[in-house]
Amino acid sequence: MPAGVGIGPGNGKAYPGNLTPFVTVTCIVAAMGGLIFGYDIGISGGVTTMAPFLQKFFPEVWDKKEANKSTNQYCQYDSETLTLFTSSLYLAALVASVAAATITRKLGRKLSMLFGGLLFFAGALVNGFAKAVWMLILGRILLGLGIGFANQSVPLYLSEMAPYRYRGSLNIGFQLSITVGILVANVLNFFFAKIKGGWGWRLSLGGAMVPALIITIGSLVLPDTPNSMIERGQAEEARTKLKKIRGVDDVEEEFKDLVAASDASKLVEHPWTNLLQRKYRPHLTMAVLIPFFQQFTGINVIMFYAPVLFNTIGFGDDASLMSAVITGIVNVVATMVSIYGVDKWGRRFLFLEGGVQMLICQAVVAACIGAKFGTSGNPGDLPKWYAIVVVLFICVYVAGFAWSWGPLGWLVPSEIFPLEIRSAAQSVNVAVNMIFTFLVAQVFLTMLCHMKFGLFLFFAFFVVVMSIFVYFFLPETKGIPIEEMNQVWKSHWYWSRFVEDHDYPNGDMEMSKGGLGPKNV
Ligand code: BGC
User: Coiled-coil segments, which residues (predicted)?
Assistant: First the structure.
């Protein structure tokens, strides 16, 4: 059975180091970088169901929705301009993530976070005061640029900072912030939508300034990671910092490995073209496929469009926003489960369990919607129990995502790249994530209109494919120090053919000879 890996903690190097208050607080502050991404994901869906917002900026969508009450419910929101509003952000984020590769590598992780916060702040300001569609789009482009910088740098920062035994949990703080951001946004939408005078959407959009300030201030007070300091020629300061972060004096072994990784990194002049070398094939494959699969779970259909979706299946406007709040709570709580379990049960277990759970729920939701709406999209009267069943299964689906592909889609890429390609590969990860987030956001309403309930089966198909991929091709990475990660490829039944002994001067060789063996074949 190709179980992926059998390397547990204790088999490889064991750097001394504790979960110090210093590293914990540092990681919590840095993880808050996820708030801006989450806030934005949660806010757009709700705002685009607010009547005054639609009437002001997208009157044609409003008219169609009003006129459409008794006809095909699948198609009532189908509008290119409206989806462009949601998805323009993701294209901007893609561009920024590429620029962030150089800044993160040459100037440090912190500076990319700072840019992220400032750009996001500017975007929130423009959106809160928007008078015309072009201002909305400009605002969203600025927000997107901010997200590109933050998502590129924050996960790397966390994975470098954390003691390796707790890396999973600390890194998932980022995803936890994303989910908290989504939830807060959903709750705010619920209340702001009720504001008389119809300007609540301005508060929703302008409210993004708050998470922007948090990451901006955070980036100013956080220390840089030792890995990045060494990479930028500050070795002695890095040693002192490493002692403080780990809470022990004996950091020599880890420090030496960081310096070795940095030396290897200096030999690489063109990280982008380097990524194409054969020995980086496993890394490149993961940098592309993990974010691709994460988006093809279909999660953002729920995240962006939960109110729209619930509205479509017969909830009133208020009930729709409320249901989105419920899925938001499930999302946060289930992410905590993964913080608890990721360094105990491992990444592969969570990926596979989450996959099965999502698959079952997608099939049930498709069957429920298909049974009532058929292909005409005309449900007649919907009984209450029916709506409850749909929301329940959507919640179980969200929980499955929230302890698997959600956090792991950010964690695993941030921990598997060697330093010399880390920043560039992480940019590929973010860029691919954004392209497919964009595609899902852009085509979802049209797909719902054409594929109807089959849309859920479409994503279910991808969940099967990604689970098979994880089973055969994704090695376990729990409990392996980040600069020692190459051992997991060397001892993998498939990826070992791409990795050659002389590729890794960092001591991995010794380890793989020292009995790790091909347990995982
Ligand atoms: C994904 C987002 C998604 C969110 C939901 C993140 O990991 O990248 O696309 O909306 O999780 O919690």
Answer: none
